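Sample 1 of the test manifest.
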Amino acid sequence: MPELPEIETVKLQLQKYLVGQEITKLDQLHPKSVQGEVKSVVGKKVTGVERKGKMLVLDLGKELRLAVHFKMSGQLILVRHNRQKVENRVVGGHPTEDWVGKLPSKHTRAIFQFRSGDLMYFNDQRIFGWIKILTSKQLADLPFIKKLGPEPWDITPKQLYELMRKRKKAIKLVLMDQELLSGVGNIYANDALWEAKIDPKTPAVKLDEVQAKLLHQSVIKVLREGIKYGGATAADAKYMNLDGLGGHYQDHFRTYSRDSQKCLRRDGGVIKKTTLGGRGTYFCPKCQK
DNA sequence: TGCCCCCTGCAG
DNA sequence: CTGCAGGGGGCA
């Protein structure tokens, strides 16, 4: 579920609230959710938090790392020991009770306890996500990490063009291929292509340098906007930030989940939904050629 | 490069 | 009941 902007939002919160905190316990509630030597994190302090594409990395001193991937439905929720009760929070468009105060839930897969009394819950409905405990070297050696491509703002438009002109597959799949470009997922790929007025199924090799430059700008634009609005929380409310609150980018979706609605360009087009690479794909047939 | 799979849960 | 969900790995 979460893409770069959602993970970035959580990263910034972790840096603010978790750095310096000592882990006193890690409960593994589901065997698939935590991999590695659980005991080795006890007594360690969080010394830093990084993001690599859609993955989070908590530094536990110089050598130990705690890598977290949310995949489709992961969440990290921090419940501070001195927190105030929160009421009528809006989750998925509906006011709810204080669900954060009722954690753990049936989807809680791991619980961190800190010396301060703070508790951090790793929730993951679908159990695709994971927490890996490993050394910094083991982390660097993960095939997934070794193959991870650059983030969009770390390459030039020209480099994006060079990367595109060698691929015959649909441009949307190129944008989402983490080995070519990291951080872009289904929501932001759809919206970036709308910004650039490019049909998602166009073979990447068919786009020219001008389109590549525009697409580069568009990808960065929607990612930055996603970060600005604290990520996207769709109606199912699976993405939540560290406070258990949703983001707001969904109020600014260009195409994602907007099928059969009017194109925001008011060009008379209607957003159409198709499938590409097995993923829902949204675009305006009128302005995206 | 294209499929199927990993899982749970929800809408249609 | 089927299909679908913001991700990625493994297989042909």
